[in-house]
Design goal:
78 residues; 55% helix
């Protein structure tokens, strides 16, 4: 997946989890949880939905790698 595809997917998934969250306003290195005011359940649902949409199993141990857009792009693009 390209950076653009991952960003688009993340924005679509986030819209289903927290419709008021504006992923476009988040910098690459910002913590998504803090920047978008996500609680732990919202973030977990985000990760689960990303795994479902990409067909990849994302182990719980890898969740912390997805805290930033850069981490998300590196993880899903790699």
């Amino acid at each position: 997946m390209t950076d653009h595809e991952i960003r688009t997917l993340a924005a679509e998934v986030m819209a289903g989890i927290a419709p008021e969250a504006d992923l476009a306003s988040v910098g690459n290195e910002e913590d998504l949880r803090e920047a978008l005011d996500l609680d732990s359940m919202d973030f977990l649902n985000f990760v689960i939905a990303l795994g479902e949409r990409t067909g990849r199993k994302i182990p719980e141990a890898d969740t912390r790698r997805l805290f930033t857009l850069r981490g998300l792009i590196d993880y899903l693009g790699g």
